[in-house]
Amino acid sequence: GVDDVMDETVSKVWDGTDGQYLSFNFNVMDSSSAPGVTATEPGGLEAREIMRVASKISARGGVSVIDVTELCPMFDVSGSTSRMAVCVVMRIMAGIALKHGKTLDESLRRPGWKFKD
After folding, report:
1. Which is nearest to 33 in space by CA: 14, 52, 50?
2. If you compute the radius of gyration of the chain from its CA atoms, what whole number of angstroms results?
3. Is the pLDDT of residue 107 over 50?
């Protein structure tokens, strides 16, 4: 499943590197989970699977750069895909912060998180 693939992939990518460039392409999503994407994948990943992927990457830390691609706000009438992208980026940023010894002031499930001094 997704967890096994992610564990193996993360181990291979992280070994022997100082940092990673993460490009999060939302075209991998199933259209039912991501209406705001231009070319979804039939039978693609669901929102809960994307959040698990982001959590695994975040727990490992070490991401130096992140970008989000193939998100089309014009198609995202409800804003659900945009919100999912924000959650993905927040989880990855939390991993970056924790790697640098920062802690989070609020849960990642809520917008408006801050670093504690």
Report:
1. 50
2. 15
3. no
Q: Which two tokens stand for residue 86?
A: 């924000």
* Range name among 59-68, 78-87, 107-116 with the lowest pLDDT average: 107-116
Dihedral (CA of 20, 1, 28, 81) sign: negative
CB 55 within 8 A of CB 48: no
Please spell the DSSP secondary structure of 51-73, one letter per residue: HHHHHHHHHH--EEEEEEES--T
Tally the residues of the chain: 117
Q: Is residue 109 part of a domain?
A: no
| pLDDT surpasses 90 at 82 | yes
Q: Round to whole Å and give the CA distance between 4 and 9.
A: 9
Q: Are 115 and 103 in contact (CB under 8 A)?
A: yes
Residue 108 domain-assigned (yes or no): no
Nearest CA to 58 out of 86, 23, 22, 94 is that of 94
Boundaries of domain holding 33: 2-99
User: Which amino acid would we find at residue 70?
Assistant: E
